[in-house]
Structures are given as C-alpha cells and as structure tokens.
Design goal:
Protein name: ABC transporter ATP-binding protein
Organism: Pendulispora albinea
Helix content: 25-40%
InterPro entries: P-loop_NTPase
Strand content: 25-35%
Number of helices: 10
Order of helices and strands: EEEHEEHEHHHEHEHEEHEHEEHE
Largest sheet: 6 strands, mixed
CATH class of the largest domain: Alpha Beta
Strand order of the largest sheet: 6-7-8-3-9-10
Number of strands: 14
Oligomer: single chain
Distance between the termini: 24 Å
CATH superfamily of the largest domain: P-loop containing nucleotide triphosphate hydrolases
Length: about 290
C-alpha cells in the first residue's frame, strides 16, 4: 500500500446531512490504499467524497485536499449511479460535454474523449442516442465522462449494480482495466471477492453506521467468516462484557460493535446475551457477506 503520502480519503469527526437530517454522524477514517472499496456507506458519503456535498461538520479530505476543493480544481471526478442523461445525446456528446465542463478544449479535449471512449470500449456505440443504448452502455458512458475530465482520482458508485448477469460479466473487466492507472474509490453495498474491481482493490472498508467496523485487504476481510458487525439497542458495555466472557473478541463503537465469535459462540448465543444485557440486536451482519 502507498506510504508517505496523504490518505486517498480521510475523515475527521464528519457529519453529512441529507434533507436536513444526518445521514452519517461522527465518521473518522483514513484509507491506506490506492484502489479502495467502501462497503455499506450511505450515499451521502459518496456525494461528499466526490465533492458534490459539503460536510455539515468536520473535515473530509481527498489526498490531503478538502473534497470540494478537489472537485473545483479538477483533481477528482465523480461517477454517480444512473444520473439523468440527455436522452437524445450520444455517448460521445455526453463525454465531450463532461470534458469541456472540466475546462478541456482543443486537441487536449479530443484526446481525453477519445482515450475515455477507447478505455471503456464504447467506440461501436458512441454515436447512438443514449435513450436507445443498453443500461450497461449508459453506465460505461458515465465512467468515461469522469475519465475524460482528466481528473487524477475517480470516485464512483457501483456501476454493475442490478445489471443482467451477461452485461455484468462483460462490463466488469472493462471497468477494471479503464480505472487501473489512477487512484479510485468505489462505493458499493457489496463487492464479490472475485469481481474484477475487487481483485484490483488493495483495501476495503466496511462501514456500519458512522463507524468503520473492518479495514484491510478484501481477501483478508472476506476470510473472517465468524466475524459479525452488530448494531445494538440497549447497553453495549454489558453486552460486550458478556460476549467477551464467553470468548468473543469485541470492538465497540458506541452502539455498533464488531464481534469475532471464536470457536464456541453461535449467533443464537448472541441473541441470548443481548437479552441478558436487556438489549436488542437491531442488525447482525456477517462481515464476509460484504464480499459475497
């Protein structure tokens, strides 16, 4: 993993609001990788990391620069999932518009556009209206539009979400190849360990609420089959004490906990321990499921 340079993404006690209510509150993290998968985060964190939404409190940095500044200076480009696209525009026109919006012009703009189209293998469909293009093509167009800005970092939402299996298999390796040469942050609910972008990733973060409950190489996190992220309503201190007395390893972040069950505990035991602690397990998420 890269060293002696600012974290790709760093948060310090960040609160991000959506619709005048906190979507995430109290988030602190620092990534270490060059290609990073962020799993389980609310969409507001993607919007803030790509510079489109300012934190209500705290500081959020991309390579040591406030994310809004990174966007305004062309250092980051975001690729949201299924943004509105002008239906009669072609993929090429949309990608050119994105490059021009980022300040491109002349031969430099044309080169960025041509390179983005080639990297996403869009040349055969680049002149078709977007409303006549398959979903996978439209999503590849959004990624190409981000690349065509010339930004050094790409922040994207999972562009394979909900695609038919054949389209998923076709698009995934193309995306991985197109993004390989620059740092990226991928925000997703899950990332199968054998997915090309996950194979390219050198780090994954799993979030529960405003807390990073696991961080490391995707393959190492996926191997933690008896580790669970728990959201608890009640007394987390008593619950953690009871679980540790039964052999669990526990990390607590307020009402969110990470538990490694050990050899003897089961998930049924966790429910019984919660009852003993006069608490309720609101969410029990196997860590490995984030990579399935």
């Amino acid at each position: 993993m890269p060293t002696n340079q600012p974290a790709l993404l760093q948060a310090q006690n960040v609160r991000i609001d959506e619709h005048e209510a906190p979507a995430i509150d109290g988030l602190s993290l620092a990534t270490q990788g060059h290609h990073v998968v962020v799993l389980g985060a609310p969409r507001a964190l993607f919007e803030a990391a790509s510079g489109m939404l300012d934190p209500a409190r705290g500081e959020l940095f991309l390579q040591g620069i406030p994310c809004r500044t990174a966007l305004e200076t062309g250092r980051v480009a975001g690729a949201p999932l299924d943004p509105p696209l002008p239906p009669k525009w072609t993929a090429r026109r949309y990608i050119e518009w994105s490059a021009r919006l980022a300040g491109g012009s002349g031969s430099r703009l044309r080169n960025h556009v041509d390179e983005a189209i080639a990297s996403l293998e869009l040349a055969p469909v680049a002149e078709l209206p977007l409303d006549a293009s398959p979903l996978a093509v439209r999503r590849a167009t959004v990624i190409a539009a981000a690349l065509a800005t010339g930004a050094g970092v790409i922040v994207l939402e999972d562009p394979t979400l909900g695609l038919p299996e054949a389209a998923h298999r076709a698009l995934s390796p193309i995306l991985a190849g197109a993004l390989r040469a620059r740092p990226w942050l991928l925000f997703a609910a899950r990332a199968p360990l054998d997915a090309p972008l996950c194979l390219e990733a050198d780090e994954a973060l799993v979030l529960l609420g405003a807390h990073v409950v696991a961080q490391g190489k995707p393959s190492e996190l996926a191997a933690r089959e008896r580790t669970y992220a728990v959201h608890l309503a009640g007394d987390p201190t008593m619950f953690a004490s009871l679980a540790m007395a039964r052999g669990a390893r526990v990390e607590a972040f307020g009402s969110e906990l990470t538990l490694e069950l050990g050899d003897s505990l089961t998930t049924r035991d966790l429910l019984e321990l919660a009852n003993e602690a006069r608490s309720v397990i609101v969410e029990l998420r196997p860590l490995a499921r984030a990579f399935s």
